[in-house]
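USER: Note each token:
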Amino acid sequence: MEPVNTDVSAESDGVAVAVDGATGTGEAPGTATLGAIQLAVEELWPESLAEDWDEVGLVAGHPNAEVHRVLFAVDPTTEVIEEAIEFGAELLITHHPLLLKGVTSVAANTAKGKAVHRLIESGTALMTVHTNGDSAVGGVSDVLADALGLQNVAPLTPAANGLPEEGIGRVGDLEEVLTLGDFAARVFGILPSVAGGVRVSGDRDGLVRRVAVCGGAGDSLFGEVRASNADVYLTADLRHHPASEAREAAVNDRPYLIDVSHFASEWLWLPAAAEALGNVLADQGHDVEIRVSTTNSDPWDFILTPG
């Protein structure tokens, strides 16, 4: 599969994807341990914000191990793990968990086991920032809302144990009214290019101002979306029945629906997360190079459409 087709260079709109920590005092910067990075990650994306069903945190690695390079990615796929090893990363941070569901074996003749063995044998630690990264301020949906130019942003579902600004999903307002077609074009323009593209349900000429978003699969939030009075709901993995039922329950055809790639909707967070972690580590005097993966781990390779 080709690398993600989006500009993630350090020169692109000021977005830094390789962050070198510095003390700012002229002294030699300190080497970070995996444990120190765990603390920095907890500061940015507290594990207390993770959903009860989720599995986040350190998956493999010794807290005392030195870390000089970190790779951020959406998925801990074999290709991503190899990219991390080639980069020389001692730590791979992924949004999606490797071991979300229970396993009874990590034998190397299984897919999960092969990944675990490759990580340990190469000296590459693995850490997961999943729904805690969704819920936190500056998390997945926050970055998506910011990229779309939303204002007055608030969570769709406020966090039970967090700040008022934390929670799953976001809702906010566009600076100016757009047609659904123009808004969908804006969505298409900010996301990495993937086979599935952008699917839209609604009148192309319908007007939208209030926008609800949820990076990743968000078809469990239709009740919250309707309560927010959103004109359009942008999320990923919309299944037939929830989408059909949402259309049937729509008032004045709203909310319109925009369905995007799960991978693409969450990839946008990676450069922001890399920069945030780099800033925290630099403030602590640690010198760590942080890079964003260029591997496209969207599972689809091509699509056929009418016409």
Q: What stands out?
A: The chain has a mean pLDDT of 91. The chain has two domains: 19-133+266-292, 137-260. DSSP finds ten helices and 14 strands in the chain.
